Amino acid sequence: MRRFLQVFCAFFSAIIMALAIQNEFLLFGSPFLGLFALVPLYTALAQASSFKKAGLLMSLQMLCTHIFSSFWLGYFKDFAIFTLGATALTYAVFGYYIGGLFFMPFYITRKSALEEGAGMRPFNSPMRILLFAFLWTVYEWVKSVGFLAYPWGTLIMSAWRWKLLTQIVDITGTWGIGFLFSLFNAVIAEGLLLLPSILGSDTNNALHIRQQTKKRIFSYINTAVFCVSLFVLSTAYGIYRYTEKRTPIKKIRTLLVQPNFDSWLAESGKNALELSINLTEEQLNKTDRKPDVILWSETILPYALPAALHYYTYSPEKKPLISFIRENGIPFISGAPVELTADLPLAGTRTEDSGTRTKDGFAHSVSVMREFNNAAVYFDGEGNWLDFYGKVQLVPFAEIIPYADKAWMRSFMQALVGFSSGWTPGKHYTVFDIPLKNGSAKISTPICFEDAFPYICRNLFFAGSEVFFNLTNDAWSRTDSAEIQHYVIASYRAQEFRTSLVRCTNAGFTSVTDPAGRILYSLPLFESTAGIVDVPVYKRTLTVYAVLGDWLPILLGGLWGAFYLVFYIRRRIEGHKTCPAT
């Protein structure tokens, strides 16, 4: 029965976590549920009888949380075996091993449980609480960085509605949110575990028990007060930052186009270019003020530049793209492939003179391995291709394949999913200079889930970016929750760097977010539509997070490791003292 309850607690923790994160029932999630999502898991780990069982409990919780909150990864065309299957397996395996780390504080204090109950080890409770919060923060950081990074399914996401609390990210990054929420969960769970020792005796012995556990209770209360104090201080800072008056130094009048097509479906993507031109033209006909820039989403232009530049001078047939750009005289940014193994045109080169053409209008490289960037391409108002930004952080196994230069890997991938090569990661953090009526604005274009990675946006910020213009294709997910989850993760970048975040997507969530995390403008999900918005540009501010980066999880990880190092040394010293003299 006890084992069944532990399994239920781990499973129940996953359910609460999935409901706290943005989902189909609570579209923007629930911070309140986020405060209690880990309580069942904590109690289950506290009562586990071994490292193995703790590992299995953690494995179950992480596996179920991932599947419940990211089930939409199964819609990623033929790659679902990687996007959902492989990731679920990874969490199950990783959870088993990390479960042992979470179990360690409970294990090392279990031998002194009687002394702790008698008030002789009052610091055991705070130690368990803090170590749990330290490790959970480090865990969410580790899962959000690197080649296999996946920053979804975190406590961080559940806090989005509480803007007064999330303002601390300009100091701590989102890891400060994860620490606060995991700390609160641990405090509540530890209090529930402590409760039976206070109330579980008859009246005659109640006074005696309270005397024994007075120090223990006092130590726990101090920890709870510390937790509440952090929330109060964070909220006070949040009030200051959220209500701070910010005056834009300029505005970028931007036309955002959301064509609502699934690039995985051939029929849907076939007319995407023509649809995007029509939506753009409709908006231009409605306004008296010409936009400063036209922004299209990822994957709108299907053929690789520079070879396809000639193709776009006569396609689409009704209104060719290059002619459309020249006709309107507005700078233009869109998602498109760029071939790195071709001769790239210089800035200002006329499009019809760019690239090497054959009779079919496309260049054919003689390279053994052709390399392509998933890119954002920038045209000036005369239709000249000026520059591009290549996506740096690629989706593992879907956009980038490890060892793709090896014949055995290409054969394996060809047999498994029908393709044998992927994109080449971008190597430069390119910033585009957009001309305005008075001066110019420097914008960066993180592509798709790159806006979920602070380090990408941090590098773009230090490259000179004044505003983040994200180009995304999430239409394949088919679910509102997937679109909102992506937006929620990305929205923290605006607060971290105190800048505006513009998102132009295939199907949602197309929006503009201000430096305080407020949504200034948005388009409805999964609708073919477009809109013009004046994007505020603020004076660049060097936040603590911009300067120091991920200092908090590194610090907490160091404190976690230092505790166990000191514990190990002390145990060795005590062991030597108790050894009989020879």
Question: What topology emerges from the helices and strands here?
Answer:
Blueprint: H1 2-20, H2 31-34, H3 39-46, H4 51-69, H5 80-110, H6 113-117, H7 124-142, H8 155-158, H9 163-166, H10 169-172, H11 175-199, H12 203-212, H13 214-242, E1 250-258, H14 266-270, H15 272-286, E2 293-295, H16 321-328, E3 332-339, E4 372-379, E5 385-390, H17 407-417, E6 431-435, E7 440-444, H18 454-462, E8 467-472, H19 480-497, E9 500-505, E10 511-513, E11 519-522, E12 529-537, H20 544-548, H21 551-578
Parallel strand pairs: 1-2, 2-3, 7-8, 8-9
Antiparallel strand pairs: 1-12, 3-4, 4-5, 6-7, 9-10, 10-11
Helix pairs in contact: 1-3, 1-4, 3-11, 4-5, 5-7, 7-11, 7-13, 7-21, 11-13
Q: Care to describe what's here?
A:
The protein contains 21 helices and twelve strands. The protein is elongated, with a radius of gyration of 27 Å. The chain has helices at 2-20, 31-34, 39-46, 51-69, 80-110, 113-117, 124-142, 155-158, 163-166, 169-172, 175-199, 203-212, 214-242, 266-270, 272-286, 321-328, 407-417, 454-462, 480-497, 544-548, 551-578; strands at residues 250-258, 293-295, 332-339, 372-379, 385-390, 431-435, 440-444, 467-472, 500-505, 511-513, 519-522, 529-537. It folds into two domains: 2-244; 250-358 and 370-392 and 427-546, 4-Layer Sandwich (Nitrilase/N-carbamoyl-D-aminoacid amidohydrolase), CATH 3.60.110. The two termini are 49 Å apart. Helix 7 crosses helix 21 and helix 11 packs antiparallel against helix 13. The chain has 582 residues and is α/β, with parallel strands linked by helices. Strand 7, helix 18 and strand 8 form a beta-alpha-beta unit. Residues 353-367 have low confidence and may be disordered. The protein has a six-stranded mixed sheet with strand order 5-4-3-2-1-12.
